[in-house]
Amino acid sequence: MSGILVDDDPRAGRPSDGDAVIELIDARKTYRTGDIEFEALRGIDLRVDEGEYLAIMGPSGSGKSTLMNILGCLDVLTSGSYRLGGEDVAELTETTLARVRNRRIGFVFQQFHLLPSLSALRNVELPLVYAGIGKEERRDRAEAALRRVGLGERLANRPSELSGGQQQRVAVARALVGDPTMILADEPTGNLDSQSTADVLGLLDELNDSGRTIVLITHELEVAERSGRVALVRDGMIHDDEVTA
Ligand code: ADP
Ligand code: MG
Question: What residue numbers bound the domain in which 236 lies?
């Protein structure tokens, strides 16, 4: 497999078993707030192969976002293991993890998470700034990404000058501009009308068709049905995981 690690990591290219991008084994996450503990993930086993499109469904509070934060290396497990591209995430340095997040994973969130003071173009350029890519290439790639999501005429607009659907398409452009191996989308259509939902899901379909692994979190069945596989999370456990297409 091409691997999810950056090319200059000394451990990249080490043999891994099969083409698993994601392998969670008995994954558990306990939140502690003062004296109160809450076990949000209660022993999840999950394997996602390269190029798969997995939808994770489940009611509010079932642990979907917690799971996505783990998958995206935004948070760490309390126990169990997470192998990303064959590498045990717990063994990676913070620097390597930051690079994996920035260069290999594209995030799309329900609340868009765009910077309000920046134009669409600058928002999309940001991951490339962090990756140390030069000004001209940054601009070209960000512009191409925005054209790809149908926003070639909106480069200079700030988020507040765009509709919700357009803002989410900017976020999709930002997620794909770094050419990530994997896209993680947490309720990406949760705040969108039906036309914008269709637009965003169509973009995710295209990204999957071009080989990206997609993990999409949703509580809507119509949205989940776009994927090839649906996993149902309830009370921090996966209760059902089946291939639908
Ligand atoms: P979902 O995305 O499925 O709605 P979450 O993963 O956001 O669910 O939350 C799962 C459970 O963990 C909920 O009961 C929530 O209150 C709790 N939780 C989430 N984040 C935290 C946190 N940072 N601290 C304490 N509890 C949390
Ligand atoms: Mg959530």
Answer: 52-74+97-243
Dihedral Cα 120, 210, 21, 105, nearest 10 deg:
-10
Please report the pLDDT score of residue 137 as a whole number: 97
User: How many angstroms separate the CA atoms of 217 and 238, rounded?
Assistant: 13
Q: Give residues with Cβ within 8 angstroms of 224, minimum separation 6.
A: 55, 57, 216, 218, 230
Specify if 23 maps to a domain. Answer: no
pLDDT at residue 12 in the model = 44
Mutate to test the pocket of ligand 1, among 44, 66, 71, 111 (most ligand atoms within 8 A of CB): 66
Asked if the structure places residue 110 within a domain, the reply is: yes
Nearest atom within ligand 1 for CA of residue 187:
2
- What DSSP character marks residue 63? S
Tokens matching residue 45: 């086993």
Q: Domain of 58: which CATH number?
A: 3.40.50.300
Answer yes or no: is 37 within a domain. no
Q: Is 12 within a domain?
A: no
Q: How far is the CA of 218 from the centre of ligand 2 (A)?
A: 8
CB of 31 shorter than 6 A to ligand 1:
yes
Q: Using DSSP bridges, classify how beta strands 105-109 and 182-186 pair: parallel, antiparallel or unpaired.
A: parallel
Mean pLDDT by 10 residues, the chain (245 residues): 48 53 97 96 96 95 96 95 93 89 91 96 95 95 96 97 96 95 95 92 95 94 91 93 72
Q: In whole angstroms, what is the distance from residue 228 CA to residue 153 CA?
A: 33
Give yes or no for residue 40 CB within 6 A of ligand 1: yes
Does residue 178 have its Cβ closer than 6 Å to ligand 1? no
Q: How many domains does the chain have?
A: 1
